[in-house]
Amino acid sequence: MQNIVGIDIGGSHITMAQVDPEKREIIASTYVREHVDSFGDREHIFSAWISAIEKVTHNLVKEDLLIGIAMPGPFDYENGVSLMQQGKFIDIYHVNIKDELADRLKISTTQIHFLNDAGAFLEGEVFGGCVQDYNRIFGVTLGTGLGTAFYNGETASDEDLWNSPFKDSISEDYLATRWFVNHYAALTGKIVSGTKDLLDEPEEMQTIIFDDYADSFAEFIVNYVRDYNPEVLVIGGNIAKVYPYFKNRLNQHLTEHKINLPIKISAIFEDAAILGAAGYALKKARINLTK
């Protein structure tokens, strides 16, 4: 069996696990999640990453190892070079991360493959999640931010629609968690931290807020998603967990616009990026073998 590790690098953590390519699932006993100070210096960041990776790969034959890494942008994914100029990971700007990791892990750069984190979520759902039987798939992650990706039958690409023009602002302002926080505060003068808190509210208040959210989400689908002509829409992120509260209103709007789009909720949530990174690495390795 091919030895594959999927890695999800975020702004404050690195999360990873070995993946069984035949069962298309994470090997739970190998799961590692560690804090990383992304504002730290270059050596601190790499040391933290390597320490975590070695915990997952210590029992694997290095020559047979494949590593897939989901990474936020901006980033040169083909060459493995960070293009993040401000905020998090600023000290590794223009550093070739693929070369650094390969050298420190004592493996070839051809064993490491990077992809965008939004694309990794969708690759994970295609590889081992809820849309394995579809070819044209649009993926949306709804949480702290808005992630969008499209799978064309071969690979998932980040569509970067978070800042697309929407109403009087951008799409993310109406579809991410902060919209719920701000809208609830405007209606009640009180504070919630996210959608989970809203489930403790009276049904009447829930209906108002989730109906308003459904209206915006439907408008986003009409304005942007429909043009991709997807066979299915898959939703991940924390807001996907409250989908039953805005499902009916959303589907009503889609029907009114004659959009027949099945909606699937992520089967693997937080693990999707790890699975997707691993599946992508396996796909790239197979493509390289045929060249």
UniProtKB/TrEMBL annotation:
InterPro entries: ATPase_NBD, ROK. Gene3D superfamilies: 3.30.420.40. Pfam families: ROK. Signal peptide: none annotated. It comes from the Bacteria. Belongs to the ROK (NagC/XylR) family. This is ROK family transcriptional regulator.
